[in-house]
Amino acid sequence: MSDENPILNIIDLQVGIDGNQILKGIDIKIPSGEIHAIMGRNGSGKTTTANVIMGHPSYEVEGGDVLLEGESILEMEPWERSRAGVFLSFQYPQAVPGLQVGNFLRKSVGSVRGDDAARGSTFREELKSAMSKLNMPPSFLSRYVNDGFSGGEKKRFEVLQMMLLRPRLAVLDETDSGLDIDGIRTVAEGINDVVRGTDNGALIITHYSRILEHVRPDRIHVMIGGKIVTSGGPGLATLLEENGYDWLEQRVAEGEEFE
Amino acid sequence: MSQSNEAREAVGDYKAGWHDPENSTIRFDFGLSEKVVRDISELKNEPEWMTEMRLKAYRHFTERPMPTWGNTEILEGIDFDNVCYFLRSSDETGESWDDVPEDIRNTFERLGIPEAEQKWLSGVTAQYESETVYHSIREDLEKQGVIFLDMDSGLREHEDIVKQYFGTVVPHSDNKFSALNTAVWSGGSFIYVPKGVSVEMPVQAYFRINAKNMGQFERTLIIADEGSSIHYVEGCTAPTYSTDSLHSAVVELIALPGAHIRYTTVQNWSTNVYNLVTKRGVAHENSKIEWVDGNIGSKLTMKYPAVILKGEGSHAEVISVAYAGEGQHQDAGAKVHHIASNTTSNILSKSISKDGGRGSYRGMAKVMPKAENCRMNIVCDALILDEGSRSDTYPTMEVGNASAHCEHEASVSKVGDEQLFYLMSRGHTEAEALGMIVNGFFEPFTKELPMEYAVELNKLMALEMEGSIG
User: Fold this and answer.
1) Which class does domain A8-90+150-253 fall in?
2) What is the mean pLDDT of chain A?
């Protein structure tokens, strides 16, 4: 039950790719209804974490476990994880020329939430409302998935999918990068829409504290060199923004904790 | 991927692969001879000029060597002595489905033809083995003088028009298989659209081979008179047998000044059918000919829809897609000859190969020295789904006039792991994800099809993506 089990529980996760260990044993626990963030430099293992949660075939899990509401998902295929409630907003969403957005969304909703959710007017109403929240024109539906999209359009399309698929766990991999301030606010509203006031959970991966001002995560984890070096409240983001990762690394080495 | 396998088993590898018992009323012995050619002509009570034309073509066929290009290895596998060249399965052409023998009617019902006819077609012919078993045309069109008949009836009822045009676009000596077709042709469609008449809804012909080792040699002739327009759609299927059948058609189109002909094919022969077809149209002043050509089935297809741009200001459009799966070679493409000035052409060719299949684009685009200000644009895209599959292009361009504007683009791509992962992360199985990528790739073709065909084709391709993954 979700009362007892966190939405996401990552336990001592070790992951490698092509023989190189990237994640060196990380632990993250996201209780129901909470939003967490992972911050860290490029190459610290943030995207690897996101990909492994979704089941990317290129990574090898060398140890530890990933539990969704108490159940291990490591043996599941990506689509099974998706149907179980995991969603990943991609850092680099893939283009599929010829596949219409409207069609794709309906099929995805059908696969993840069942055919009833994808049917007729129910789906159309939901789609219309989500698109207007994200300031997307109806003409967007007849375009091809991520084909010729601007950076901002790609990110908003990821958020649109998240809103329609209603995941138990939303993982957002740098969904804020490359967006202007309005774009960031829109994305943040999308995340709040999916998690706040529900018993779902979200994990936001980001470089910057800006999006966190709008989402107000419950907890922030700082990742350096494939490890979570420290975790703390929302204030940690501001500290990082002001002082940088080097400063933090040093503090951690000196034994400081940030609650 | 047990789910996919279950789905595949439930539907069957090839949906149209069943066969009926053979209840023929006339069946020729295997093999081809001058006597067979004479017998076919006599049986049909043809005028002498046609018998002569057949015999001349037969002689040319026997003398002409097999093509030395294309997939000669598969071509050499054709055993002309082990083909039935004529099979009559019904003694008359029905004008109501009730007149069609029950087992044959069931076949076409399973293929959804009567239903489509009621919903969205102007007319239908259904050919079973060598001859048309059903034919209908909407009354209002008939009143406007539109002729839509099977070719045999066309010759009987409109000999003057047939004699004027038959064999003028594709002469029997064009190639070995056009010679064969001219010698033993049977069935196919004959269409004449009078001046200024627009046939709004498509007319459809459906070709079904049922018997083993059957040869189907339909012959189609479409004449669109000045300022008229017509959209002709054809579909084809056959049962899956372990021995091969031969389908060798000839299609001739004549677009008179200002006319517009669109010819759409979705070929889904079973993979034991040789599909060797010659399709060509002549476009007069300011007319337009469009070939929309889909090749999904067959063992070997060699087909290059052609347009001769004979009249000034005429336009050619060839959109073709090919899917080559296990044991299949789709050797398809297009041919455009710019003979007159200010003529334009677009060729778009897309092929997918999977499970060791081979897709080839073979194109010939020519601008004659006296043709001024011509434009042509050729785009070939290939998508290769796995390691052992193959794609090749054989483009030829001969530009004899310096004022011509020619563009040629070609691309070969593979389905990326990241693309699949992205789609799978949205709840789609690997097969479904692949189906989406493949259908997206074919979309420029599919969107040109009547909706019912488009839906059918998407389902078909999604099914093709099932099963062999993992």
Assistant:
1) alpha beta
2) 93
